[in-house]
Amino acid sequence: MKRRTDIVRLAIMATTGVALVSMGTSATGNPLSGRLKRAAGISRAKPSWHGKSSARGPRNLRALEPGFTPQKWKDCNRYIGQAKTDCREYLNAKGYAAKGHYETALGKLKGLSDAAKKMKYVVTLRAKVDKGQKEAAEKKRKEDEAETTLARIKDDGLTSDSHRSNVGKIIFSAAEVVFAKEDAAQLRGSFKLKSPIYGRAYLSASLCNQKMDEGWKLPKYGYRCAAMIHLMVNGKKVDQWRLDPKPRKGRTATTFQLVPKPDVNDSYQYGEGPMRLHVALSLAGTGTHQVEYVYFLEHDVKDENGRFSQTYGEKPVARGGFSVKVEKRTLKAMAKRYWAPFKAKTLGDKKMVRRFVRTWNNTYSRQYGKL
Fold it and tell me: Is the pTM of this model over 0.90?
């Protein structure tokens, strides 16, 4: 039926003198079938590169051409299959290398097929990436060296007569131990927990200089010159926390204030040190206890994956202690003062917090409520 219709349409147009257009439609706008187009001598226009080796269009190549170097993304449309994938990965690697991301570029190049890896432009890019990696590693090594110095820094030295007499020790007083203005009459070795307790640690040199004395490299700005404070009760370590002074102070300071139990009017009464001591003594119970503070240097250790971990010096840089008499009513008064911080569980040692909460609930819950 279709063949008969085409013949009729062709006869009508021939008798009426209507010309067939190159677009393959009749004068009425209806499309002509392929058989009618061939009968009328109409053929679809073909691009100039069709079936030729011209570089102006895709040739559906299944392998990369040694004489052609892809420059843009559309150049990869010349290929199909693995060749097209290799072309795109090469351009990706080239872009990463231009931005200095040599590790990523190397990964892209390693993913190419064996045939693509032998292409001259791929070999050239691989050599560029390898060279860039070496230069980047050397630059980082020089930057790391610039970040450290092995020369000692001028620190505060021995700041007072009390400092000279107590190097490497921690002294304690019933009043604040003012820097370079210590009152020897206030120094004590035993206290009642209801009285204020202040202290000051005296170092032989700044934290940064002591790190260098132990063979560690010094950070450029001193921001990692820190110490770890160990709290001992009756000879047993019960808590620890970090002393992390500001960079400038870590480089130069040779003495640090310590506040185990400040005066009730002192703004520091809710500091980390007083609350930790209260927890430790609450767990120890009533009676007389020996309390000691020990300062150790903190060091950063970098593993092969670039992650940092902390380790501590074997010898303490300062230590000192006192005996304290603990009464039940004093513990209750301190508990009332610190109730909100303890309820919020803001302390760092979670295990100690659980122990304290258990002790609190057994001892003080009737008067102050459970935590």
Answer: no
